[in-house]
Amino acid sequence: MEKESFEDHEVAALLNRHFVCIKVDREERPDVDHLYMAFCQALTGAGGWPLTIIMTPEKKPFFAGTYFPKTERYGRPGLMELSEQVGTLWKNGEDKLRESAEKIVSAVHSGRTKTNKPTTQTGTLASDVSLQNVKGSPSETFQTWANQIIKQAYDTLAHSFDARYGGFGQAPKFPTPHNLTFLLRYAEDHPQDKALQMVHKTLDGMSLGGIYDHIGYGFARYSTDEMWLIPHFEKMLYDNALLALAYIESYQVEHRPEDAQKAKEIFTYVLRDMTSPEGGFFSAEDADAEGVEGKFHVWTPQEVEAVLGKKTATKYCAVYDISAKGNFEGKNNPNLLLGALSKIAQDNSQTQDEVLSSLEGARQSLFAAREQRIHPHKDDKILTAWNGLMIAALAKGAQVLGENSYLEAADKAAEFILTHLVQNDGRLLARYREGDAAYPGYLDDYAFFIWGLLELYSASGKPLYLKTALHLQGELERLFTDEEGGGYFLTGSDAEELIFRPKESYDGALPSGNSITALNLLRLARLTGAEHWEKKAEQQLLAFRPVLEEHPSGYTAFLQALQFALHPSQELILAGSLENSALPEMRQIFFSEFRPYSSLLYQEGNLPEMIPWTKDYPIDPSHVTAYLCQNFTCQRPVRQIEEFKTLLKKF
């Protein structure tokens, strides 16, 4: 639509004759996108992008739609005809259109008010579900309700699971990594169910499929087919951050080498292609190159042979499904789903990994050749929210995979945000590009960045990260709290005033800011022991009961906060200098297993300034002392690595 309409001079002249035209980047202004998408769904029963809204000068919409060709085609009205018709209607019947707009706004606002009606009373939901009877112990009624919601979500995912190819539902298939991280937690409590198999099948299917870039690494946005074979070739920063987290957590559960390898490859792609010189992470790479979808990524056998020579090319093409027939518009998107990997391995008495390793040099040669092609456009916006996700992923990678370069990259990105995307008054901003920082940060910016800071603190022990996370959470409470309806608005109280303040709880391609905030609050409550964070977490968990009950599987990121709340408080306190060589070894041992409900604190001397109770854990300059605590009861302190390992087995 951009190419055939908005960049067309004839269309532009007609639009400018009748309208004041505003083109919105929905990544820079998610508030505008959320608001008017709600109108589109109310008016048409569906949504999607591109989103087309026609509204009064007061921003009240009276027409909504998605894609419009330049002129009428296949029964779909054209933008030219539509513009003329609406222009005439406005000229001859402005009053009627304004009246229609008022009715639409009233109806949508009424519907949203009902959805967001208050459900909390000083932290308890009506009278039947209270989160806690005593500090740290969920009540039986809360446990019953939460477990029912979690089970319903699992059952829905299990029902829609594609046992043949992995993933959920039919084409197009989206990665939706928070479904997988929810299932990993579910599998911890229900090992007899098939949650873990669903996760592995999906991660493996995506890894083998063409949704993954086997030459340059990184995942595309979604697959157009059920097999994960042909993607929409656009690569998004947030998908790769969340998928890296899913592969890392899967690796923690069963230590499958392929999970660790995939996470490392994602980071290779991001640090190579999506990182600015200053350390921030770019947003996306387009699907098109030279105006053609996928042109940068696809190959013919002749092109492969020209790079590799006949012998190696024959093997590479056989393994990666590159043929004269092609699998994408006469060319080939490399994949491991349909090639002859298994047969070649068997014929040569090799494992499949050995075959792939033997082709690593070929991959590097093809990558070098592909680099000479015209690249897709890179969206070099640096978004605070998406950077927060990548910081969290890299910090988790440093924790689990022991790669210090990931910690350095996460640290540099956090420093970039704190330097370039924070105003003098402390207000977080949403977008940076070419020296310009703009737009007051949204809920997602605060929530995702706080998540990243908490993971950075867990990976490094630097008190600055915990201190900053606590400060930003306080600002989030001040700016975004919905005092009447519970939860948090998408926009701050200081943001541009729209018709009404949008509020999002649904976990779509991205988890919602409300979901991540629920988990952040629980983590802060466990880390600090502060009652006010515990109370905020309780209020957040109970505020969304109606929507959770209506469609549990649509809120799998939020459900991970419920899962966290259901489990006993578990803390590891490492008391000692951050420079002590024993500390990283203990940390590595701790993170080698999947511990989604555990918290790590570093008593390095400064922590009691933020968390006074940690002064009771003294520092010995020559040792690191580990304290393992559960439900506010600590085991005997240990200093020796073997003792630490033994104690962890009981944790």
Automatic annotation (TrEMBL):
Source domain of life: Bacteria
InterPro entries documented for this protein: 6-hairpin_glycosidase_sf, 6hp_glycosidase-like_sf, Ssp411, Ssp411-like_TRX, Thioredoxin-like_sf
GO BP field: carbohydrate metabolic process
SUPFAM superfamilies linked: Six-hairpin glycosidases, Thioredoxin-like
Domain Spermatogenesis-associated protein 20-like TRX: 1-108
Protein name per Swiss-Prot or TrEMBL: Thioredoxin domain-containing protein
